[in-house]
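Q: I'm writing up a methods section and want to include an example of the input and output format. Could you take the sequence below and give the corresponding predicted structure tokens, formatted cleanly so I can copy it straight into the document?
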Amino acid sequence: ITANQETYAQKAWRWLDLTGYYTRWHSRRAWILDLDPPARTAAMMVTEYERKLILWLVWLSFFFTPISLWFWYGQFTHLACKPVLPLMPEYQYLNGRKRDFGFHGGRWSDCKECRWLELECKKMCHDRLRAEGRDVWGLRRPRSQTIGTH
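A: Here is the clean output for your methods example:
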């Protein structure tokens, strides 16, 4: 059939069959010729129902792949969220952000607002204690940027 003898329906089906899927759906010979040589020999054991089922499942796989990726990406972005957890009871060792840190602040709990290894906060607290005139053993040593005996 030449292009000027083709009906509009035939032309539409020809353009819709860009990948050859409809040709392989309607023609077993075209489906077999599209297979690899080892699969061609095994194709004689495939029934017509199985052949169309394979084609249908391949089409469904291609159709659902972007939907699956969209769902996966949506679930993957939820990893950045904190999961739902039960509310823990208020113990002294939980939720240290809202509690004072007096349980490790020294003899008089002088620097309750500073965490254990928050050294800049400890320096400011020690400066405040020195300005108040408190004689704390740790403040009688020379100060430097390093913490320790060196």
